[in-house]
Design goal:
mainly alpha, Growth Hormone, Chain: A, 19 helices, globular
């Protein structure tokens, strides 16, 4: 098949193996570039930003709940803006949103380094950094991957999601070392520079759909070939393709939204407070930062394994099983002071986070490609609200009691409810193969 490309960078990639029918499908270049962007964006702002928790608390003289508010408000904003972001991705394409988000997140981190107080930090972080991160990183990247893959959607999502953990393996201890040696302002500046230098060049070759390059999802040819250069995602034989309105009328959409929201309620709170929880359990701040690295390393393995297993044995089943380890670890921390449970929490949280790619891939499996960004954005209102409340609740519990025990017990019960909800979701084992001519 003749491959059509526009622009210097995609043309360069098109000459590499795979873009014109070679051994590597161009969609995997989309995955690689998206993973690189996510490794710095999510690796710093999602997985590693917990190393700023205690330094910010001490620098501004505020409570744990006040610092938790920063992370929680960012999640709430991401949820509330989700429907609009989904519309903009459909309107302008993933690349434009990625470039915008990278500029806002990177530039905002540079501004954070000169914030004089808590409330100025809050405004810059929420309205520039978090806004850019929520709108311009995982959401548009996952939308592109959802359009480029069907049979290998779980693995594609696993690579881009795991890249955040891979980035955190480097950024958590490095940022912690910079903060301890030069202060949190130097850490914020370094993070901003890295996001700008990596994110902008990597975004340039990204294309929205395989049809825009005369290709088809997974590199396969359906019965009815779309016109080369056609940008809109095209329904394929045997695959679901629901409009937004049709999806909203199904019971499974609301069940899936509620279940993902419960999972994020737990994992976002634990991720936000991971370093403070480990310090509460007896580790030093430096050792806790390496605990974040343990979490990040395990996340990579967990996400890749979950993507592979989800494509074969059912994404709902694996999503539920993946939440069990963090539920057990939180329960163990409540009733035991053994150091084992601190490391079990880091590993259990990583496994639960490892279900994220197959959570998001379920949306594409069940409802199709064209409605994906809008449906995911609508779900964001629910999970963004719960992810806003849970870190604040954990910080408030610690401020009042001096312990995380009650918060962890609460989250363990929510995790149990999450497991049960995934168990009753309709099993969707793997996409049926695209019909070949």
């Amino acid at each position: 098949m003749q491959t059509t490309t526009r622009g210097r960078f995609p043309a360069l990639l098109a000459r590499l193996p795979g873009a014109g029918g070679g051994p590597v499908f161009y969609g995997w270049w989309i995955v690689a570039l998206g993973s690189l962007i996510n490794a710095v964006g999510s690796g710093i702002l999602n997985h590693s930003f917990t190393v700023f928790f205690l330094p910010l608390k001490n620098a501004f003289g505020v409570s744990s709940a006040a610092v938790s508010l920063l992370y929680a408000a960012a999640r709430l904003e991401g949820g509330l803006e989700g429907p609009l972001v989904g519309y903009l991705i459909n309107k302008s394409g993933p690349r434009a949103m990625i470039v915008t988000g990278v500029c806002m997140a990177g530039g905002g981190l540079l501004l954070l380094s000169v914030a004089p107080g808590y409330w100025s930090f809050f405004c810059i972080y929420i309205f520039i950094v978090a806004l850019g991160h929520n709108a311009g990183f995982f959401h548009p990247i996952s939308t592109a991957v959802n359009s480029w893959f069907i049979r290998h959607r779980g693995m594609g999502f696993s690579w881009i999601t795991a890249s955040g953990g891979a980035g955190a393996v480097l950024w958590a201890p490095l940022l912690s070392a910079i903060i301890q040696s030069f202060g949190w302002r130097a850490g914020a500046s370094a993070a901003g520079v890295v996001i700008l230098l990596v994110g902008l060049p990597a975004a340039i070759p990204i294309r929205s759909t395989p049809e825009s390059m005369g290709l088809h999802p997974d590199g396969e040819t359906p019965d009815e070939s779309p016109r080369p250069g056609q940008a809109a995602a095209t329904p394929l034989p045997g695959m679901p393709e629901l409009s937004v309105r049709e999806a909203l009328r199904t019971r499974v959409f609301w069940m899936l939204m509620g279940t993902i929201s419960l999972r994020l309620l737990v994992t976002v709170a634990v991720n936000t407070h991971l370093v403070p929880i480990l310090v509460w359990g007896g580790l030093s701040e430096g050792a806790a930062a390496y605990g974040v690295s343990l979490y990040a390393c395990t996340t990579i393995v967990a996400m890749m394994a979950m993507g592979w297993m989800g494509d074969r044995w059912g994404k709902s089943l694996m999503s539920g099983l993946g939440v069990v380890p963090v539920m057990l670890a939180m329960t163990g921390l409540v009733f035991s002071q053994a150091p084992f449970w601190l490391y079990a929490l880091a590993v259990g949280e990583a496994i639960a986070m490892g279900t994220a790619p197959i959570n998001w891939a379920l949306i594409g499996d069940l409802f199709g490609r064209r409605s994906y960004p809008t449906l995911r954005g609508i779900m964001g209102v629910s999970y963004g609200t719960l992810a806003f409340l849970s870190p604040i609740y954990a910080g408030w519990i610690f401020d009042v009691t001096g312990s995380y025990a009650l918060a962890l017990l609460t989250f363990a019960l929510v995790a149990l409810a999450t497991v049960l909800c995934f168990a009753v979701l309709p099993a969707f084992s793997r996409p049926r193969s695209v019909a070949r001519p």
